[in-house]
Amino acid sequence: MVALDEKIGLAERVAHYEALVARARGSNVHEKTLLATDYLNHINEIVMLLELVPDAPECLEDCRAWEPLSYVDHFRQSGIADRDLAIEAYPWSPPQYKKPFDRLVSEMNRLIGISITRLEAALAEGNEDATRLVATRASQNLQHLIGQASAVIHGDRRIIDQAQIDELMQL
Q: In the prediction, which pLDDT does 164 show?
């Protein structure tokens, strides 16, 4: 296995990248981006929990217990067949996909934190309408960002800009 940060020649780097692309064909890792949509399951977990809070406020504890996982840490804990390939390929993902993907993940994690804080406040006030509104908007906005991340994973470089992401954060 060749690490990305090792001092290797360009020919070796190209050969290793091409080998990863070949291994990705027919796997859960996209051969163009070297990213896997399975990572998004981690975010979908918290989306489902957030959606439950208005009708089951005790689920807020589960939301608080949820922790963001890095891409690599998620796959280290995963049981999917292509987990080793996903871990090895991640640093080799071309920057035009990896950078926007990482930014979207960071923004999703930030939105989750904001949403949990706002849900805590709405529940503390006993405001059911605000609780439902925060949970609904958080779910919708996270699903939108998940869709953007999925598009990047599948090779689409057209994602929303930072101003649009910031607007989502307004809940």
A: 58
Q: Up-side HSE of residue 34: CA atoms within 13 Å toward CB?
A: 23
Amino acid at the residue 71: Y
Q: Which long-range contacts (CB under 8 A, 24 or more apart) does 130-135 make?
A: 131/53, 131/54, 131/57, 132/54, 134/171, 135/50, 135/51, 135/53, 135/54
With 0-12 / 13-18 / 19 or more C-beta atoms within 10 angstroms meaning exposed / middle / buried, residue 74 is buried
Q: Where are the domains of the chain?
A: 10-169
pLDDT band at 111 (very low <50, low <70, confident <90, very high): very high
The model's pTM? 0.85
The radius of gyration computed from the CA coordinates of the chain, to the nearest angstrom, equals 18
